[in-house]
């Protein structure tokens, strides 16, 4: 992460065109979300220690799918050379802001957004049901709060991964 920040700090002066300004702003947004994702992921969350039900497991699966999609988009942005049919910016500082980037397939973006949205909706329902399980004696308060926090953190990880990837491809 710090290498990207150092690299972007070497971009001298404001970009020359509106398109270059949008690309720089979008790249900075992507970096901000990636930084938040990194902070959250390294925050000592122990998702495996929460013994949950099917909703907790499904939340983990959705988050994993979002992370795989984000990684695929990031690899596509970083890897293919110019002229490729894949999406990517150029490899050196001057070209980061220049030229059009091809987008990943719309289906991939739609699946990415579907998983993120589903996880966000699941969080709301899961939270209510899990906290309600304390009232009916099914769960202890400690267990319920850990489960809610775990799903909330999975949702936050997914949101930051999604937003970072979307900004990387200029759709933020």
Please, could you describe this protein's structure?
By secondary structure, the protein is mainly alpha-helical. The chain has one domain (17-168). The chain contains six helices and no strands. It has helices at 2-9, 18-41, 54-78, 93-96, 106-135, 141-168. Helix 3 packs parallel to helix 6. It is elongated. The protein starts with a helix and ends with a helix. The relative contact order is 0.18.
Characteristics of this structure?
mainly alpha; single chain; elongated; 69% helix; 172 residues
Briefly say what this structure is.
The protein has about 170 residues and is mainly α. It has helices at about 1-10, 20-40, 55-80, 95, 105-135, 140-170.
Question: How many angstroms does the end-to-end distance come to?
Answer: 20 Å
Strand residue percentage: under 5%
> What's the rounded overall pLDDT mean?
77
Number of domains: 1
Order of helices and strands: HHHHHH
* Spans of at least 5 consecutive residues with low confidence: 84-102
- DSSP helix fraction: 55-70%
